[in-house]
Amino acid sequence: MGLSRTKDLVNRLNIDFTEQCVVTVGGTNGKGTTCALIEQICLHAGLTVGVYSSPHLISFCERIRLNGELIAQTMLCEIFEQIDISRKETAQKTIELTYFEFATLAALKAFSDQKVDVVILEVGLGGRLDAVNVIDSDVAVITSIGLDHQAWLGDTKEKIAFEKAGIFRTCKPVIIGEEAPQQSMLDYAQQLGAQLICRGKDFIFDETSNLVSIHGEQFSTENAKIPKQNVATALAAVNALSRSVFSGSDNVLSRKLVTALPFLTTSKAVQAIIDKTQVLGRHHVLRQQQNGEYCAVILDVAHNEDSARQLSRLIRTYSFNTCHIVAGMLKDKNIEVSLQAFSDIQAHWYCATLPTARGEDAERLVRAVNSSAQLNENSKVDAFGNVDMAYKQALINAQSNDIILVMGSFLTVAAVLAYHASA
User: Which residue range or ranges hold the Mur ligase central domain (predicted)?
Assistant: First the structure.
């Protein structure tokens, strides 16, 4: 891990964002949905927007969005060719790039060439040494801090928080989406002189009333289709972005026909955007229950303990007899803790083996569920060789007053999306 390779290529490719506003979004969970809501509000305000997000579910092009649309394959291939040529233009050896560095450079090149107004960059891993951190952000966002990728980031939340705080910049706004942020992150922000904007102090999210209070305005998350705390974090980021847009005449955005409002557009419009924004695979209702004919299908890429607990709380807000849980996970995740968050729910488990070297066998998932002291006495646990087999059986078994939940990994959700696409 390191930034030198990416920095070298940024210079060679003439990537420049001096006239754009850059929002960098880091954190353990909630990055993709936070990016999506910021994106939708900016687009509604008449700004052009580029979003870099990962990983993808079906098409690699999902990682790069230009004005709400996936990047064209032809444009992407042309950019990849430019990167490949540039990394070989040296009297010394060719610059070797990781998969993520190649993807990041492609996104940055696309956004620079298209001269979008707002660039939204989702951190892939950590922050300090992540490839997106070669670009200085105007607004930095930390959605949450949880235990994930400990081998790279450290084995405590304090260590992980410090790595993620690496996206902060001097005198620039920093949005903290958790009410009790780690001290290492706060200390680093203070050391830099960053402008801390913290949940619970500068903006409020009341989980009981489903209300976000910020800048004298209130917004409801009751009908939100993305995690509700991420709505609050995204609104805080848009508010900070709005101040950045109109902070001086030198910024190209201040010369655009954008209404100078705390959230770039009217509060009524923002509420409508909150209600309709949905992200593929994140609390994604694939099939609604209709007229008692079949059950609902919910897809969620929750793949670590914090996101699993959050998803468990969400599922309990639904009314159902049995939850049919199709689960597939990677070996390096905390499988036991993640799955046991659902163990007291009356469930029929369909544990699936995932492909690739990182994919875990179904038998380990079965053991993880069965080992819980809280396992509901009416629950059943079965193993399957792949996600398709598990999901097909869930469709057969589920009754109209049940729900099907697909979770545990991007690979698990992608397999179900692919199944429906080909059905």
Answer: 25-192
For residue 249, pLDDT over 70 is answered with no
Report the run of H or E that residue 22 belongs to, with start and end. strand 21-26
| Alpha helix stretches (DSSP H) within 136-284 | 150-153, 157-164, 183-192, 228-245, 267-276
For residues 407 and 396, what is the distance between their CA atoms, to the nearest angstrom?
18
Cα 52 to Cα 103: distance, rounded to the nearest angstrom: 9
- Please provide residue 337's backbone torsions phi and psi, each rounded to the nearest 5 degrees: -65, -40
Give the total residue count for the chain: 423
The pLDDT tens digits of the residues spanning 288-329 come to 665 566 788 999 998 888 889 889 988 888 889 999 999 999
Task: Tell me the DSSP string of 134-157.
Answer: GSPPSEEEE----S--HHHH-SSH
Closest C-alpha among 410, 371, 386 to residue 32: 410
Q: What is the largest CA-CA distance in the chain?
A: 69
Question: In this structure, which amino acid lies at residue 371?
Answer: S
Give 263's DSSP letter.
Answer: B
- Fold of the domain built from segment(s) 4-276: UDP-N-acetylmuramoyl-L-alanine:D-glutamate ligase (3.40.1190)
Domain covering 284-422 in this structure, CATH number: 3.90.190.20
Identify how many contiguous H helices and E strands the chain contains and give both numbers: 14, 17
Beta strands at 380-384 and 347-352: parallel, antiparallel or unpaired: parallel
- Residue 333, token pair as written in the block: 């995740």
Q: Exposed, middle or buried, 243 (CB in 10 Å: 0-12/13-18/19+)? A: middle
Question: pLDDT tens, 96-133?
Answer: 999 999 999 999 999 999 999 999 999 987 878 899 99
SS (H, E, C) 205-216: EECCCCEEEECC
Q: Where are the domains of the chain?
A: 4-276, 284-422
Look at residue 245 and give its three-state secondary structure: helix
Q: Is 327 helix (H, G, I), strand (E, B) or coil?
A: strand
What is the tens place of the pLDDT at every residue in 322-365?
A: 999 999 999 988 899 999 999 899 999 999 999 989 999 999 99
Please state, in angstroms and rounded to a whole number, the distance separating the CA atoms of residues 217 and 291: 38
Sheet containing 139-142: give its strands across.
69-70, 64-66, 49-52, 118-122, 21-26, 139-142, 173-176, 195-198
d(CA 358, CA 329): 9
